[in-house]
Specification:
- This protein is an alpha/beta fold.
- The protein has a single domain, classed as Amidase signature (AS) enzymes (Alpha-Beta Complex).
- 39% of the residues lie in helices and 13% in strands.
- The longest helix has 24 residues.
Length: 471
């Protein structure tokens, strides 16, 4: 195989070639490093490229495989991770100039697990400052969407979306508090899985909201996402919020058979007046594709999802400001414009507002869990619009603008971080201006395999995941 073609393989395709020794980990790693050098100046998807360490790890993987020590599907696969995860002896900035010199002493658990699986770390990916939604000032370069360089690849796991979509890594890790895995998946034509809260360790992860932060894969196919989460899922004694629930074999769930599975269509979101007409058409067609595969459909109403953005942000802002107060107060002027507003809001938000949001969260979570008692998965759009233009000026200017934002994308993703359920977004079409649109699939707590199963069946009967951005 021509080395230049290697980055265009899915991680699962590359895995099989590495296992059969048709492609070596060093060849694969070098091919990705060459592509990063060629293209990332346009995308700003990486903050740090660990070229020397990557080639060293690839050489070790190559020698181990040659000696019969193959570790499994991730062995030798070049990956990249959001710069929110600690990496031993490697700069970890959190997307902020405040942490521009922070070099951790140890790896986050998810990074350690990737290394244990034999994966090769290419580097650290760009992100919104301290993992908080849209920002204006990206100190390490503004991430760009490979489908259109004037568009946002998704926040806050921006670099994970851009790099994976542009074939600058085989698969990546993001972190999702209110939609920061699923947003880049929707915007960049990818598969993004937010696992159940407590399925994946957050030890060594720069936190924001203790009750919602979740680490998961951003990948080019459902099989790639299954491979990636398999490597990082499981109980971690260093994260007391991880569950001891057994981790299934996710790849075995991808059998293409969803005959008889019960699918609940969230009508409040599919027929939302906020939904762009082209997006509505794409989701309607996607439901038809799923319907041809033999599941049973029923309509579901979740009225509190309309308020999910407001509930989410009331909780996230208070928790985020509390976690980072000692860092932000002495460095306030170094924060992004938008984050200054968010930090102050989180500090002054009344306790009664936070308490009310918690009560509403419990009500919404119960609505979702009740619906999932009747069906195996829920489906809805991944967002209400395609990727928006890159911010050319500070975004937070008025309370009316902020309220409109909370009623937008986060009202589609937010319900499921509030409920702690797994949720996956994958491509379901393209707009008339060739921007990706995503379908979101939601499962019961710790039922990621069912979500992956339905997503894979849909993916195998469409061609959206095979499209390549024009960069």
């Amino acid at each position: 195989m021509d080395k230049q073609d290697i980055p265009f393989l899915t991680a699962s395709q590359l895995s099989r070639l590495i296992a059969s020794k048709e492609v070596s980990p060093v060849e694969a790693t070098q091919a990705y490093l060459d592509r990063i050098e060629q293209l990332d100046g346009k995308l700003n998807s990486y903050i740090t490229v660990t070229r020397e360490q990557a080639l060293k790890s690839a050489g070790e993987a190559e020698r181990a495989i040659a000696a019969g020590g193959y570790l499994g599907p991730m062995h030798g696969i070049p990956v990249a991770v959001k710069d929110q995860f600690n990496t031993a002896d490697i700069l970890t900035t959190g997307g902020s100039r405040i942490l521009s010199e922070f070099v951790p002493l140890e790896d986050a658990t998810v990074v350690a697990k990737l290394k244990e699986s034999g994966a090769v770390l290419l580097g650290k990916l760009n992100m919104s400052e301290f993992a908080m939604a849209e920002i204006y000032d990206h100190p390490y370069g503004t991430p760009r969407n490979p489908w259109n360089l004037e568009r946002n690849p998704g926040t806050s796991s921006s670099g994970s979306g851009a790099a994976t979509s542009a074939f600058l890594c085989a698969t990546s890790l993001g972190e999702d508090t209110g939609g920061s895995i699923r947003g880049p998946a929707n915007n960049s034509g990818l598969v993004g899985l937010r696992p159940s809260w407590g399925r994946v360790s957050r030890h060594g992860v720069l936190g924001g909201s203790w009750s919602m932060d979740t680490v998961g894969p951003i990948s080019r196919s459902v099989e790639d996402a299954a491979m990636t989460i398999q490597a990082i899922a499981g109980h971690d004694p260093r994260d007391p919020y991880t569950w001891k629930t057994p981790v299934p074999n996710y790849l075995k769930a991808l059998d293409g058979n969803i005959q008889g599975i019960k699918i609940g269509v969230i009508r409040d979101k599919v027929d939302s007046p906020l939904l762009d007409p082209e997006f509505h058409s794409a989701v309607t067609v996607a439901l038809g594709v799923l319907g041809d595969l033999g599941p049973h459909f029923q309509d579901v109403s979740l009225p509190l999802t309309e308020q999910a953005g407001f509930i989410s942000m009331a909780l996230i802002l208070v928790e985020w400001a509390s976690v980072h107060r000692s860092t932000f107060e002495p460095n306030f002027q170094r924060l992004d414009h938008n984050n200054k507003y968010r930090f102050v809001t989180g500090i002054i938000l009344p306790a009664q507002a936070y308490y009310k949001a918690q009560k509403l969260r419990a009500m919404l979570r119960q609505q979702i869990l009740d619906a999932l008692e009747q069906v195996d998965v829920l489906v809805l759009p991944g967002s209400h619009v395609t990727a928006r233009p890159v911010e050319s000026e500070p975004g937070l200017q008025s309370k009316e603008q902020i309220a409109a934002g909370m009623a937008g994308r986060i009202s589609f993703t937010g319900p499921f971080n509030l409920a702690g359920t797994p949720a996956l977004t994958l491509p379901c079409g393209f707009s008339s201006d060739d921007m990706p649109m995503g379908l979101q699939i939601v499962g019961k707590p710790f039922a990621e395999e069912m979500v992956l199963k339905v997503a894979h069946a849909y993916e195998q009967n469409t061609d959206w995941h095979n499209r390549k951005p024009p960069i």
